[in-house]
Amino acid sequence: MTGNTATESTVIGNTVIGNTVWVIGDGWIPPTSTGPAPEMTSHESACMLNPNRQAVDVEVTLYFADRPPAGPYRVGIPGERVRHVRFNDLTDPEPVPTATDYSAVIRASLPIVVQHTRLDSRQAENALMSTIAFPAV
User: Fold this and answer.
1) Phi/psi at 36 (nearest 5 deg)?
2) What value, to the nearest 5°, has the Cα angle with vertex 5 and ends 3 and 8?
3) Which of 33, 106, 110, 114 lies 20 to 30 angstroms, CA to CA, from 134?
C-alpha cells in the first residue's frame, strides 16, 4: 500500500475525498434468509467509492472477540468507480462466519469512501441498516 498524497488523490478545493483507513465496528452476518437469492440473502456489505483516477488496492481485516483476526481479504477498485463487497462472498483466506460478532478494518492504497450496510432477511419483514464507516486517521 502506498501513502496518500494530494497528487495521487481526488481533491476538491483543499479537501481530499475519502480516507485510507476505515473501521466498521458492528459486523454480524445473519445466519438465515427469507426470499429469493441472491437479492434477499442476509448479508453485510461495504460500498466503496474510489474517486481517484488510479485503481485502488483494498485490504479488509476482521477482528473477533474470541479468536485471532482473519484476512487480509484483498479487493481491487478501478479508478473513478464504486464497488459493493458482500462480506458473505469473501472466502480467501477463509469464509467470513455467520452469526458471529466482528469488526472490520479497511485499508486502501489511496483515499476512498466506505459505507456499511446490513440486510437482515431472517423474517419476511426485512430489516436494512446502513451507516458510514468510521474514517480512522
Assistant:
1) -70, 140
2) 95
3) 33
